[in-house]
Design brief:
nine-stranded mixed sheet, 28 helices
């Protein structure tokens, strides 16, 4: 064995992995099979992904040709119209040049016969009867009127109008006239507009479905194209009903001397339920989106605001901890990370909350909410036009409402259900129980609106008052048998509040500010929380609460989609100018992982695919082509690009390929389609930046005042200073034998995609002057990778004589600058040797045993301790080579590639 191999552990590993050594130790094993030397790689198969791409482009070309043909035909018709129509007729249609004065369609439908009007609206639907007759329904903000084009219009004018697609915006001038036959009820006037002129304002394109007719698509499709769906007259009416609820809610409470407040929606702890809140990155630490304004509302009462409210957006699940018993009156955003996919749950909805001091009894709160809701329902019942339009789409019975709201104790509600034959426990009401009770209340009291009082304390949150330890001072409000509000009295004694928190298993430390408000004295108070979408939904008897939300949010409403590429010009699926392929730096930012950033080193050569612009980096080393990292291209193109590159290696370079540090996807291409061998003894060490940034927070605090960490934008002076420190760092490493690494220290390449962080300290050169000298102790460089992989800690350099903890603090600050992003620290050794593809069990067993011994003996996992501080997790990366591609005496070439 040479002196180098004795000293270099990777060389020893390469020697131990020689097939000849494996066979010598296990020559009698039946599990091992010798194989003849073969070609460097097998013949490429047909490239399905490239074929699909070509087919897609061909289809796009055909569709474009069809569009061009249609446009050419229409241009011919326009030329013909220009010669056959008079100048006066041609001025009556076409593109709009001068807008002029227009009248809102809502006012037009109120006008009488004979009025000449000009308005702007969308084309809801057309019905062409002949070349001389065309009926159009115009729509604006849910208002509809029928128009007719007849003998007053030329054939060319009617043909031009017929070509306009539904949802196109037009400006119309005409006269209101009585039609020969009565019009359908869905129109907003019995008159029709005889069109005298119509001009194009804005054409619609590729509308996914029509809003007219009986063939409306399923709700899922409509909600998936919500902007279009909201144009429907019934949805316009629902949104007007929603707006009226908010107006009345505010007006009534303002009349009762409530003040509107806005509470913070970022909170420091998941005080309600850690599994049901949304986590967000907050300057290197975690915060949570508030589920409810409950705490802030009560704190406002402690601040002597007396009566407050807020309109808020939150989850419609009223059984959540705070919303069960909200006490401030407020409107604002609140969120709930609950995976509920029902007709009445959302992850974000608009809540109406109020909180008030109590003079005598908590029923003051109930009576206030009752006054608000009765005012709301009275206002909604007067919206005849909107409710009629909604019922055309979703039929419902009239809403029954009494002057005096029925209020029944919880025990009576349970007894009504038991008398009806239901097995209802005296704990809380299930959703089926609530719906059935609603029908019983309608039959008995002739009311769709009622209140259940005195709920069991076990069904209420920790802050609810109870006078007997069993029954709570709380209530629920129901509409058509479904809950829309929870309210009651809160505990205002800090001692009792803490006792209740401990009994509920709540950590007081997470609610310090909240409890301080009670220690400083809070008057008796209570409140309630209502769900706006639920009020609208249940009053109108809609089938789904999503219909009452402008843009609903539920667990399915934000579909998974790949992040957009930072460099569209380097999108290998859509590169047309292949004579000028995209820069390697942009390809790395679009598709790259940590290994790809090494391709910027001087020793790498870059091959770019003539068909896609995709890139592969390689190093020519003797008779080998050493490749690292995945192909830089769209995942669907990996197989085709890989095969074309290997053809280039075989035919042009005439070298033997070895492909290292690749993902499982790239390994699959090589092993499954090309029959290569593959194994893994390395991992890509990944973390999530927000979690990793907090990992060493204590160390950062301990070093406060010793050094300062900051992000820098490199200038010439800074680069010079850093280069000096890098040289100092290199000198400390000299004399320690050969170093193993993949990339050179070259931090100033591709600065567009890199961020720089340092820890430095200043020391005064003269106590009598303010002059000081800065010493750079550390430098951390982040390299931008693909959106999937986030960022790489490209270098974390701890320069000589740096303070203890400086490098950890610098990494921590770097990670805090990229909140909630994936990050990789680069490759490291794995605990186990993994034989992935086409390797016999005996060979794999021997290689695994040898690998573990070398890792333990020579300390190849030295980086693991530092990286583990940041919560890294290993993801296997693979070394691949063709069968017979490496002879026994050639394994050292792999080690040589990584040597300094």
């Amino acid at each position: 064995m040479t002196e180098d191999k004795k000293r270099n552990p990777l060389a020893k590993l390469g020697d131990a992995l020689k097939p000849s050594h494996v066979i010598e130790h296990f020559k009698h094993s039946s599990n091992d099979h010798s194989e003849p030397n073969g070609d460097a790689h097998s013949q490429p198969t047909s490239n399905d992904s490239d074929s699909r791409l070509e087919e897609k482009r061909s289809k796009e070309d055909r569709q474009q040709a069809e569009k061009d043909e249609i446009e050419h035909h229409r241009a011919k018709l326009d030329e013909k119209a220009a010669t056959e129509d008079s100048p006066e007729m041609r001025e009556k249609y076409g593109d709009l040049d001068i807008p002029g004065e227009i009248i809102p369609l809502g006012e037009v439908v109120k006008m009488g016969e004979g009025k000449e009007v000009t308005f702007r609206a969308r084309i809801h639907v057309q019905r062409a009867v002949s070349s001389q007759l065309d009926f159009i329904v115009f729509r604006q903000r849910g208002i509809m009127i029928q128009g007719v084009l007849n003998d007053d219009c030329s054939e060319h004018m009617i043909k031009w109008v017929e070509r306009l697609p539904n949802e196109t915006i037009v400006q119309v001038t005409g006269t209101l006239r009585q039609p020969p036959k009565s019009l359908k009820a869905s129109l907003d006037t019995p008159l029709e507009i005889h069109v005298e002129a119509i001009h194009l304002v804005e054409k619609s394109h590729e509308v996914p479905f029509n809003l007219s007719g009986a063939n409306t698509p399923p709700q899922g499709i409509r909600l998936g194209n919500r902007i279009l769906d909201l144009r429907h007259p019934s949805n316009q009416a629902i949104m007007r009903v929603r707006a009226r609820v908010l107006k009345v809610f505010r007006d009534v409470l303002e009349g009762k001397e409530f003040m509107e407040i806005q509470t913070p929606k970022l909170q420091p702890a998941a005080t309600e339920s850690g599994a049901e809140v949304f986590k967000v990155a907050y300057f290197g630490r975690q915060a949570f989106l508030a589920q409810s304004p409950q705490l802030a509302k009560q704190m406002a009462i402690s601040a002597d605001f007396g009566r407050v409210y807020e309109v808020r957006h939150r989850c419609s699940h009223t059984s959540c901890l705070w919303s069960r018993n909200s006490t401030d009156n407020q409107i604002g955003p609140v969120f709930r990370a609950e995976n509920s996919n029902t007709h009445r749950h959302l992850t974000e909805y608009t809540g109406l909350d109020l909180e008030m001091t109590i003079q005598q009894d908590y029923h003051e709160v109930m009576n206030t909410i009752d006054d608000v809701l009765k005012s709301v329902f009275a206002a909604l019942k007067s919206m005849d036009q909107q409710i009629s339009r909604i019922r055309e789409e979703w039929p419902s019975d009239d809403f029954l409402l009494l002057d005096k709201t029925p209020v029944i104790p919880f025990t009576e509600a349970v007894q009504m259900l038991r008398d009806d034959g239901r097995d209802t426990e005296e704990e809380d009401l299930s959703t089926p129980d609530e719906i059935r009770l609603g029908r019983l209340m309608r039959e008995k009291y002739k009311s769709d609106y009622y209140i259940i009082d005195k709920f069991p304390l076990s069904a209420r949150p920790f802050y609810t008052v109870s006078e007997d330890g069993k029954t709570s001072n709380s209530f629920d409000v129901f509409v058509r048998g479904q809950e829309v509000c929870t309210g009651g009295q809160r505990i205002n004694d800090p001692k009792k509040l803490r006792e209740s928190m401990r009994a509920s298993g709540i950590d007081e430390r997470t609610m310090k500010e909240y409890l301080t408000a009670f220690d400083w004295g809070v008057p008796p108070h209570g409140g309630g929380g209502l769900g706006l979408e639920r009020i609208v939904t249940f009053f109108l008897d809609l089938p789904d609460v999503r219909l009452a939300s402008l843009f609903h949010r539920d667990p399915q409403s934000l579909p998974e989609q790949g992040p957009s590429l930072p460099h569209p010009d380097a999108d290998t699926l859509h590169i047309r100018d292949l004579e000028h392929p995209p820069p390697l730096e942009n390809l790395i930012a679009n598709y790259g992982d940590a290994s790809n950033t090494s391709w910027l080193d001087d020793r790498f050569k870059i091959w770019q695919d003539e068909s896609t612009g995709a890139a592969v980096g390689y190093v020519e080393q003797g008779k080998f082509c050493m490749i690292t990292g995945d192909v830089l291209c769209d995942p669907t193109q990996k197989a085709g690009v890989t095969k074309r590159f290997l053809e280039y290696v075989d035919n042009s370079l005439k070298l033997k390929p070895v492909w290292m540090l690749v993902s499982e996807e790239q390994q699959d291409v090589l092993s499954q389609e090309l029959n290569w061998r593959s194994f893994s003894c390395t991992v890509e060490q990944r973390a999530q930046s927000s979690e990793a940034a907090q990992a060493d927070a204590k160390s950062n605090k301990e070093q406060k005042g010793v050094f300062k960490v900051k992000e820098v934008s490199p200038d010439e002076e800074f680069i010079t200073a850093c280069d000096k420190r890098i040289n100092d760092w290199k000198e400390t490493r000299s004399g320690k034998g050969k170093q193993v690494h993949l990339t050179e220290i070259a931090p100033w390449k591709d600065m567009e995609h890199r961020q720089y962080f340092i820890a430095e300290s200043s020391s005064s050169s003269d106590k009598n002057t303010s002059d000081s000298q800065s010493t750079i102790h550390t430098m951390v460089v982040l390299a931008r990778l693909s959106p999937e992989h986030g960022y790489q800690v490209k270098w974390a350099l701890d320069f000589p004589d740096s303070p203890n903890g400086a490098i950890e603090a610098t990494v921590q600050n770097a990670l805090a600058s990229i909140p909630d992003s994936p990050v990789t620290f680069g490759a490291g050794v794995s605990e186990d040797f993994i034989a992935k593809a086409h390797m016999g069990k005996t060979r794999a067993k021997m290689m695994s045993r040898t690998y573990k011994g070398i890792v333990k003996s020579f300390g190849l996992d030295k980086k693991a301790g530092f990286r583990e501080k940041f919560g890294v997790k290993g993801e296997e990366v693979y070394i691949c080579f063709p069968k017979g591609g490496l002879k026994a005496n050639e394994w050292g070439e792999v080690v040589k590639f990584f040597e300094e």
